[in-house]
Amino acid sequence: MKLDQVHSSESRSAVGDSSKSAYARERKVVPGGSMRAASWFQPNPPYAARGEGCWVIDIDGRRLLDCANNFFSLIHGHAYAPVLDAVRGAMTKGTAFGMPTESEILLAEALAARNPRMEQTRFCNSGTEAVLAAIKGARGLTGRHRIAKFEGCYHGAYDWVEVSLDPTPANWDDENGNPASVRCNAGTPDTVLRDVVVLPYDDPQRCADILRREGTSLAAVIVDPHASRAGTVPMSRETASVIQEACRRDGIILIADEVISFRLSYEGASPLFGLEPDLITTAKIIGGGLPIGAVSGRANLMAVFDHSAGKPKVSMGGTFSANPLSMAAGLTSLEHYSRPVVDRLNSLGDLLRTRIGKGFADAGVAATVTGMGSLFRVHVGPGKVTGYRSAFPTSEAGNLIRRIQLAMLDENVLLTPNCSGALSSPMTEVEVSAIADKLVRVVRRELGDHPGATT
Ligand SMILES: Cc1ncc(COP(=O)(O)O)c(C=O)c1O
């Protein structure tokens, strides 16, 4: 489907009747009517029926240009033929075994070939599990249990890394003006809050001070150097080098959480920021559209999980870990995410952000686009976004973001609820131009109604 077809159903409403009635049924059997808060929005999301390349077709038959890509996990879009062939091939032999398969060796080798710091890997089934295992690994290696993480950064649904995931201006400072450890879920024990040191994403000096004070008590610093919830902005080189130095100085395990940001280069995100992590967590694109997670690192550190000489320092396993379907899909997907494909997709991302940024500037609207490689996010407001706090929307900006997302849906473009997106390899300049033109038009219209939202 090309640009003219994208425009053809502009007059239709964002969510069709079949999706509305599916949602009414789901509300009866699922709390909130959705399995994932992140894929839910009011009045209700469209329900997917199937996908084709960069398009998703909902159960009302609407074709949406998919920038959500199952939360950035589908680097080749939907139903990518080589991945389907690989999965079909694997599936006909059986779906899971209480034995290792050669497919797990192939995917671990593929990761090691991309980045020497991923010399060895253990697979699991989600990014959350990978982060959980990496932190346990860091504890086993250091004999310490506290960790440090950056304010507002998401690393999965695990008590310790959920600390300060969503603080607000009312509670985000402690009595010294440093980021406070803020409870995300009701009932999280105070001990968890005490054991998590929270770092500011865009204040290297304060990071250095906090780490100098807390460093020797830390098992790990976990960092995503291009964190989506912290604004989808690259971390500064200064901050990256502050944490790298602190980890070296105080014997802290540096965990790079590249669950999303692995896509930023052939080798992953860390080398782009001068980071030399001890452990790297990945998921999403390395599973080719099937569930996956992975912890990787140099053999001497990954030995913490090695059971072959008796009980390991840290156990890691799971019934469906390294299941052959995820392994086959992931291997094929990575093989097709070659250097030229990475470069092409990153150039398309540059083009997209340039066009959107210019469109906003020409229109004089107080909105910005951030991101890197094939990732982007739109923010409303006059200020520069450098991290979690500057990305934190006022209530008016939050409402506008919701309206922009819905208006984009009306334009047949699916963004995530916070107006972020990821490109996939089936996209070309045609789709990228469509996304940019529509976003600029929509933002101009929505912000035009709000006098404070122009520059
Ligand atoms: C940086 C990061 N880490 C971890 C996770 C958790 O991954 P999963 O949803 O596969 O559990 C996510 C999910 O979006 C993520 O973005």
Automatic annotation (TrEMBL):
Biased composition (Basic and acidic residues): 1-10
One Pfam family, short name: Aminotran_3
Claim: Transferase is one of the keywords in the record: yes
Keywords: Aminotransferase, Pyridoxal phosphate, Transferase
InterPro entries to which the protein is assigned, alphabetical: Aminotrans_3, PyrdxlP-dep_Trfase, PyrdxlP-dep_Trfase_major, PyrdxlP-dep_Trfase_small
The keyword Transcription regulation appears for this protein: no
GO-annotated molecular function: pyridoxal phosphate binding; transaminase activity
Necessary cofactors: pyridoxal 5'-phosphate
Region annotation (Disordered) ranges: 1-22
CDD domains: OAT_like
Bias-annotated ranges (Polar residues): 11-21
Family: Belongs to the class-III pyridoxal-phosphate-dependent aminotransferase family.
Protein known as: Aspartate aminotransferase family protein
